């Protein structure tokens, strides 16, 4: 007789009286609709309960088809409104510079018209028109231990890893339903167990000079993502002076290439003062270790760089959206010396809050004088902004380099910010052989 092992019992989802009330429709049909989605996800995830979230970030603002717009409009028709502070991710339009978005084909026209309608619909639910993929750059940031419902892969990674807030991976429809109900399933990265490190990434063989540069972070993130998949990596050997901008670039690339939603950097991120704290006291001997070298970074740059030769048509900076320190650094590098070469379009993407601060500091005037086009509300790898004749584009973003070839049909060169500036001025690709030497 064959014995089949019993499956472990899945805890029954328990709702509070207030949550039962929302599900019944006592708070309105829109809330009930959103609650059904949240409860359905909780049951699929085997969550024992829901958690109250203090904020939400909505990724579904990009127009990918009519269904996205219909869903949000249905919530609105049923009287739904967000009940927690809710920020909005990039949309399909630069609302401050609408002429940047090309309108040469029926598909482009649909993106402009329906994309704008989708952005308006989310604002109609009470969300803040932030239009940024980097909500952690706003003044109100969640604190360590706060449960939140954030979508957008790089924002999820940053919130969990750098801020120590707690959010699972939320995508379209689930994010807005969490915002409307103020609830999320207690599962995944909301729990202690899921946040423990699962693989150690030893970077001590990489020289500190290389790790301190701005090119190492996106390359390291992309490489780690391909190595660990969706596991939680624990990085050892990064400088204690590693900046939030570097962590931002790392997380965005790791989330793109491998689905990393949380990472630990020993001695830098809040839940990793030591390796033992990151993986748990009983886990250090059992966790896999990956050792990386400078040669691995060089190979990663070669893999991401699909272009050959010196041709250069465009440069894209700010994926994720640039911080004010990154804007200031670019302005400083462009302030003295020649402007961007004719024929090379340079785009700098940022959120509106950063734009306002950059204008206050006089940075925008410096950038525009040098030939830089400011982009807000959207991103150049998802919206038809680049000129139609662009064939080779350069970027300092691992995320942009990962998605742009398939999304835009362009070849990519990956470089540091300094290499991007030098190349834009020269009108051709110019790489520093010592950058990763």
Task: Sum up the structure in keywords.
437 residues; alpha/beta; Aconitase, domain 3; five-stranded parallel beta sheet; four-stranded parallel beta sheet; globular
Helix content: 25-40%
What is the helix/strand order?
A: HHEEHEHEHHEEHHEHEHEHEHEHHEEHEH
**Poorly predicted regions:** none
Structural class: alpha/beta
Overall strand count: 14
> Taking Cα atoms only, what radius of gyration do you get, to the nearest Å?
22 Å
Terminal CA distance reads 64 Å
SS field, number of helical segments: 16
- Oligomeric status: single chain
**How many independent structural domains?**
3
Whole-number average pLDDT? Answer: 95
CATH topology of the largest domain: Aconitase, domain 3
Question: What is the beta-strand fraction?
Answer: 5-15%
Could you give a short account of the major beta sheet? 5 strands, parallel
Rough outline: globular
Strands of the widest sheet, in order across it, are 12-11-10-13-14
Looking at CATH, the homologous superfamily of the largest domain is: Aconitase, domain 3
CATH class of the largest domain: Alpha Beta
Just name the CATH architecture of the largest domain.
2-Layer Sandwich
Description:
The chain starts with 16 loop residues before the first helix and ends in an 11-residue tail after the last helix. It has helices at residues 17-24, 29-45, 66-77, 106-124, 153-163, 174-181, 208-212, 216-228, 244-258, 275-279, 294-304, 324-335, 352-360, 363-370, 398-408, 417-426, and strands at residues 50-52, 56-58, 86-88, 149-150, 183-185, 199-202, 233-236, 264-265, 288-291, 314-322, 345-350, 372-375, 392-395, 411-414. It has 437 residues and is α/β, with parallel strands linked by helices. It has 3 domains: 17-190, Aconitase, domain 3, CATH 3.30.499; 196-301; 305-426, Aconitase, domain 3 (2-Layer Sandwich).
